[in-house]
Amino acid sequence: MSSRRRRIRRRGSSGAGRYVVRGSILAVVALLILVLAGALTAYGVMQDWLDELPDYEAPDAFNVAQATKIYSADGTLLARLYLEDRTVVPMSKIATDLVNAVVAVEDERFYQHQGVDLYGIARAAVKDIISGNLDEGASTITQQYIRNTVLLNERTDISARRKVREAFLAIELEKRKTKSEILELYLNAIYFGEGAHGAQAASRVFFSKNADDLTLPEAALLAGLPQQPSRLSPYDNPEGALKRRDEVLRHMLDQGRITRAAFDEAIATPLELKRAEQPNEGIFKTPYFVAHVKKVLQQKFDQATVFQGGLTVHTTIDLKRQKMAEDAVKSQLGKKSDPDVALVSIDPRNGHIVALVGGRDYDKNKFNLATQGKRQPGSSFKTFVLVTALKEGMPPYRYVDSSSPAKIPSNPVWIVGNSEGSGRGRITLESGTRSSVNTVFARLIWELNDKDSTGAEKVAETAHDMGITSKMPPYPSIALGAQNVTPLEMASAYGTLATNGKHVPATAITKVVDAHGKTIYKADDEGEQVLKPEIAYAATSILKGVITGGTARRAQIGRPAAGKTGTSQNYRDAWFVGYTPQLVTSVWVGYYKTERSMRYVNGVRGFGGTLAAPIWAKYMSAALKNEPKLDFPKQKKPRYTWKSDWDQNKEIEVPGVVGLTLKAAQALLAEADLKLSSKTDYSSTVPKGRIISQSPKAGGKAKLGSTVGVVVSGGKKPAAPQPGKPPTQTVEPTATP
Fold this sequence. Notes:
By secondary structure, this protein is an alpha+beta fold. The protein is built from 23 helices and 23 strands. The termini are far apart.
């Protein structure tokens, strides 16, 4: 805020005379009103002039605008958001020479008055009348602070009403604050020019140092700038700034605030300026992530709170993993001619965004591809069809026609082909997922139709439950990823599978604290169970195969992981979204402006498995290097209810259970949708409780739901019964799933 005194120059003899007389009269009127303020005769006038004052009783009534600070998860300052470049510091962090210089030049009787200097007003009025000018200012530091903060909107008003309102609030402020506190407010508020508000910002802008490190000549220079910050800028007008500095030093000497020796040394000191580097938009690190945080803040709070409220924002970004993500992108697609890349990495257990790559260069392109770049996800959206099918009771081993083309009887008819050729006949849902067969999923989403809703509606609902926030028009084509989504949405949704069905919304902010230290926002990381754990686990078990033996072999990282590739039409988008129990990461590759084909990029075809998966693997290997190799917690088998005539007659390979316990054999056969019956053999030398034989044998064929008979060892044969005693009854153990 500027504390420049109002100076009115003579523009003509007669006009200037009238203006001077008017100004003098106003000054005298103000003096008289202040003297009579407590008198009953002035009560009505005062009540009218003091009508609708700002609430000076409020705790923050006299506060100034402060920058919002954004920090990483480890406490590193990422950015400062502000409309006014200001860092509020305590008096202990402001050089004493600057305090003395400001008092000397702006309000030498500061420590004697109570907010309004009546002696100063009278003296200024007399001098102005004698000189014929309004050069003598009479506003105190307290009044200047009021004028540039709570009465800022009335600043151009030169009426007696505004002067009285200003004086009244100055007196009220002096009742509530000590002189030191008022000086602290003032020195943090005033405008020094070059965009710097407050002593700390000015010290950085003009001398690249903190306010408590200023020398006497530097302090005097700053103290002289608020009078006319634009005209006296030492960068544009060094001669004028030095002249004003020397005036300030003269005031300090005359008032006994410095010695003659200090004055002589300061006067002889040349002007040496050094501007501290100011990052673009106040962002020091991770600009795309900070841009996302800023957007979230603006959704939660009003503009004034975000840019002037002095908030402290704690975020989720992990700077080490952020560096790993950026390195992974550059190592795979680092040439200027290479496609654009977006990457979002989330801890699925709490929704924290730990790394985010939103583009190649924020200074050149501020569009955030990770959070704003909506593109077709291609086959990576098939995961939501898979989950929906499992929810509907379809087992992974269910066979679906993979022949190409598939003619789906929608309106109009939807014709779908396979990128790999004509298809392989009837294949299982699991195999169709691993190989990402288009016709399987096109037929599958249509087969999910029922009298209550279409398959597309069911898939859209599943996607939204899992974390997709974009609108999903319920067209069958969503099965192949025809609707646009962002990498952030995809990472968040896949995280639901990583946590066995619990969705924790992605968040970039953990906590927001206001300027008074009060927490005004805290992220909810509890989440909601949106899928049954057994459904999520069944989907993960299938998606593991995509990495170990499907389209994403390049995503193998030496630990349990699951995921899905995606490639949109004509190779315009390449995706891989994959996860472990600790981390879920989405990678998109493409040309965001022109949507060019990536048929060949650096010698490879532009599939998700060839472009996106290697970036994912490089980042995840580094990001999880020091994490334990966890597998997904095993869940019970879902109850599969979807049966067709073909399913009823389907034969599967019987797993081997010889040597297992009865309980283990029962669980293994249940996984294959087979039942179990047993009998006991007491003559066997096999340890008690272990299975001796089975029928059908391991590797044989059996229909779904049929029974496998096993013989269980009962251990040593029981002794023959003694005469007169009934034989011991033995009950053979039997079990069915």
